């Protein structure tokens, strides 16, 4: 009967696909960067991010969509190359031109794209796509640095196709073009940038003549925040402020300071964007403004953004402020941003604060977990020794699990030995021992030592975990150990698990052993 069960196990092992790896032990901190809209990300200020070496440690972390997006965006290329369109008739004469223009744009042939989109607008001025063709033609010209021509197309779109689906995108592109022209010495563009940076947010209109005032309208319902159209109205001013900061920081900073001094709820979105712009400028003014916002802004999201960007202000004042926030705030997200900012400071004091917070019994458990996580991302002998010592003082299983994970990420021989000691320690819970064993195997623990553990283990769950650890190693010795277990293990369930994992191996020796078992 037992032989038949083993044969069945062999057949299943040879037929079934590899099951997914079990989920990583424990909860991992999810750090979400403060929200930054597409226009902000596309701005020239992102060039400054190339120097933020401290953010390198964020690569691969779950939940970092906000920052990952920064690396991917190249100017306005983040926009969808095919805008939402009004439904077209199947016989629409613009179809062939539009498809050709889109194909040219997508392959980077911006000269052809601009010409084809221009043909749509010239030959079919009454078509539903005509206004949007002007926008995409301007975009293609912008990519080819034909800025004057691109600007003229956007002005034409505003005057003749004010209801085009791409009008908002066109306003953002117009601001981008004006900034680029101002940098080249275009006085008209410079005046536009300065004026739009200084003026309160207004709906963007690239046409030079002012539009006649509209009759008073009944009050419209606000957005979820009670501030109608704040994103539409802020975007162009934000682009102008960013451009002005790059060209003339002396003029831009006082304007940004006035923006940040506002306390009304409807300006929170604009203040958040202003914080991002300021964070890209290095200097004492940046530190002063970010510290002030972190302390005094009434909006939680704006404060969080300021605290997040304090990670790039490596001064004692910034570290002191982050320490104060950790000790006094009840805002969970603000506390999380402060922990991250401290982890990026790379100063002895910042490390000391993180270690103190990680071992503080008065701190919230989830915040202590995050402090432990960030300590593990700094591969220092001091942090490793601290975490190994901290483990013995902890009673919370989640915190202990986080210490195991953080030490496993340091890839240090002392830490690997420590993980093995935890795995062998029968006074530890089985779950902690299994997690230590899992990470010891995943981080390159000595396979000879791991192989020798199997015969020493009395705990059946630990033996099962070891079989899985062997299955995840690619060395021939790991297959040898699985073969030995499949042939000699007395526990039929463990033997079946070894057979199953051999069936997923591409080693020819494994196939031979499986055939031998079948033929027994």
Task: Walk me through what this model shows.
This protein is mainly alpha-helical. The chain contains 27 helices and no strands. Helix 4 runs antiparallel to helix 5, helix 6 (130-143) packs antiparallel against helix 7 and helix 7 runs antiparallel to helix 8. The radius of gyration is 31 Å and the shape is flat. The two termini are 12 Å apart. Residues 7-90 and 201-225 have low confidence and may be disordered.
How are the elements arranged and paired?
Elements: H1 2-15, H2 38-42, H3 65-72, H4 95-106, H5 110-123, H6 130-143, H7 147-160, H8 167-183, H9 187-198, H10 230-247, H11 249-261, H12 268-279, H13 284-296, H14 300-309, H15 316-328, H16 332-343, H17 348-358, H18 365-377, H19 381-391, H20 397-408, H21 413-424, H22 430-442, H23 447-456, H24 460-471, H25 476-488, H26 492-503, H27 508-518
Helix pairs in contact: 1-26, 1-27, 4-5, 5-6, 6-7, 6-8, 7-8, 8-9, 8-10, 9-10, 10-11, 10-12, 11-12, 12-14, 13-14, 14-16, 15-16, 15-17, 16-18, 17-18, 18-20, 19-20, 20-22, 21-22, 22-24, 23-24, 24-26, 25-26
